[in-house]
Amino acid sequence: MPIRDGRFDASINSAFSRINASIAFDKKLYREDIKGSAAYAGALFRKGILSGIEKQEILDGLESIVKEIEEGRFPFKTEDEDIHMNIERRLFEKIGEAAHKLHTGRSRNEQIVLDERLYLMDTVEALDRKITTLLKSIFTRAQKFINVIIPSYTHLRQAQLVSLSHIFLAYYHSFRRDKERLDDYKKRLKVLPLGSGAVAGSTLGIDRDFLMKELSFETLSHNSIDAVSTRDYIIEFEFICVSLLITLSRISEDLIIFSADETGYFLIPDDLTTTSSMMPHKKNPDSLELIRGKSARVIGNLVSIITLMKGLPYTYNRDLQEDKEGLFDTVETTFAVVDVMVEVVKGLAVNENKIKEALVKSKGFLFATDLADYLVLKGAAFRNAHRIVGSIVKYALDRDKSLQDLTLEEYRTFSKDFARDVYEVFDSLKSVNNHDTIGGTALNRVSDELKRIKKELKDFG
């Protein structure tokens, strides 16, 4: 029996019905809804509203409904609108009047918040494990690449020489912060809304501490209005996923660019690429392009929920029905692309010959900052050294020469501080190791960071 029957004479408008029902997507929350109902039955029994027999009938009925849903036998009905009422209707069909007592003192306004929080509590743990797997795969590659010296880039132009391991550890630290955000988020997620009623709180004196323990929450909500109307727990989770996907997208862009024919630093595994339907020679990095593309979906979902919330008066409004599809899509997309990036990182190969070719083709300009530092150590002010080296670079470009090929006499036309030892600057390993500070790319610093991370990953499990 539809819940509107007591209040309205007319059946729901068919056009309205098509957007009113949410069962097509919120049925995903059946486990959480049944878990919450089972706990609430226990609370109603403790309050004397349910007898022991009624409580057991409800628990047995809910268990059989789980089985029906998982076996694909549950009769979902659009006229019951959502997962809450579908389960209540089916429970009544199974056990009779006791099912109608289960909603005593409870509102769907709090029920959906409970379901979403329970769903996210499990989701967060699963995502945490996936991020840890990703961190471990990046760390493994960083260990292997420590002695590979490669150009770094700013503005997508060659900048300075770094250890390739240093680049991979940059990826690591970005994901590490997302893991920290996820860990910190848990304390705001695990807040029990049940007992808040529709808006003003339960009139039954329900034992909320009992419910909190039964459902593995850490604290109780302290304002019923806030409890049923907030969706900041969805916004915060989706932001964490956006942060994660932005980094995944940026890494994808790096690997797409630097696996291209014109660079070729990296080789993407064949099983993570596709070919063209027309051009048989193509090896397209579609796995990375799809990660980059799917990040837009997750960003869009975050924008959607933020926009949804910004104009809503307190407390509950039916607009909030629209919070779920974007959330589910964000979870599924994030899980999928993290899994793909783990496979990319595991299978990624480095073409050291191509990297060495790039160093030769750079004509020594990757050492330009080292040249400026050389002059600083001779006593020049950095800004003057910067200007002098800039003039030398222009001079070399005009004559199609590399910096290593300039004679000492040519160098000394720009500054008398240049001496024979200037050519010692053009040493890739020395250039990298000059950055000997915490967080720098010097190999000893990178090695120390790898040791620290190794211990950290053991703590992650």
Describe this structure in words.
- This protein has 461 residues and is mainly alpha-helical.
- The chain folds into three domains: 14-101, Fumarase/aspartase (N-terminal domain) (Fumarase C, Chain B, domain 1); 108-357, Fumarase/aspartase (Central domain) (Fumarase C, Chain A, domain 2, Up-down Bundle); 365-425, Ribonucleotide Reductase Protein R1, domain 1.
- It is 61% helix and 5% strand.
- The chain is built from 19 helices and six strands.
- The chain has helices at residues 14-20, 23-26, 30-46, 52-70, 83-95, 98-101, 108-144, 164-189, 208-214, 224-229, 232-257, 286-310, 324-347, 352-361, 368-377, 382-398, 408-412, 428-433, 443-460; strands at residues 149-154, 157-163, 191-192, 219-220, 266-267, 349-350.
- It has a two-stranded antiparallel ribbon.
- Strand 3, helix 9 and strand 4 (219-220) form a beta-alpha-beta unit.
- Helix 3 packs antiparallel against helix 4, helix 8 (164-189) runs antiparallel to helix 11 (232-257) and helix 11 (232-257) packs antiparallel against helix 12 (286-310).
- The model has no long low-confidence stretch (mean pLDDT 96).
First-residue to last-residue Cα separation: 50 Å
Level of helix content? 55-70%
* SS summary, helix count: 19
Ranges with pLDDT <50 over ≥5 residues? none
- Element-by-element helix/strand order: HHHHHHHEEHEHEHHEHHEHHHHHH
Q: Fill in the CATH topology of the largest domain.
A: Fumarase C, Chain A, domain 2
Mean pLDDT: 96
Give the strand content.
Answer: under 5%
At the fourth level of CATH, the homologous superfamily of the largest domain is Fumarase/aspartase (Central domain)
Provide the structure class.
mainly alpha
The strands making up the biggest β-sheet line up spatially as 1-2
Rg of Cα set: 31 Å
